[in-house]
């Protein structure tokens, strides 16, 4: 069998094993450098997150209050409109009733 550059079987196995080892080393987790200020940064991020959440909740509550007030005004306006319709209907019914009574009186005379 032809052996390129004088490589023996053991040399090829060693080269293959080294290549596999190098490949596996690429996927191993690397040691991380820990920041001495990590706790302070995490606390600052948590404080910022709480601040943003509080602002969003305040905005939501304000929107809900505005929506509730708008709904209350709409219902109030609807009630006033319905009351006006009822008064108008009663007036028309009274007018029609008065006309009927007047017509009946005219027949008797």
UniProtKB/TrEMBL annotation:
InterPro entries: DUF6481
Keywords: Coiled coil
Spans annotated as Disordered: 1-20, 89-109
Compositionally biased tracts (Basic and acidic residues): 1-12, 89-101
Protein name: DUF6481 family protein
Xref: Pfam families: DUF6481 (PF20089)
Protein origin, superkingdom: Bacteria
Coiled-coil ranges per UniProt: 37-78
């Amino acid at each position: 069998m032809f052996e390129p550059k004088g490589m023996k079987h053991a040399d090829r196995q060693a080269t293959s094993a080294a290549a596999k080892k190098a490949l596996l080393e690429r996927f191993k987790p690397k040691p991380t450098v820990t920041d001495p200020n990590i706790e302070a940064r995490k606390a600052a991020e948590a404080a910022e997150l709480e601040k943003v959440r509080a602002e969003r909740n305040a905005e939501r509550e304000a929107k809900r209050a505005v929506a509730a007030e708008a709904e209350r005004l709409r219902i109030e306006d609807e009630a006033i409109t319905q009351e006006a319709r009822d008064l108008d209907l009663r007036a028309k019914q009274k007018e029609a009733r008065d006309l009927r009574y007047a017509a009946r009186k005219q027949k008797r005379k």
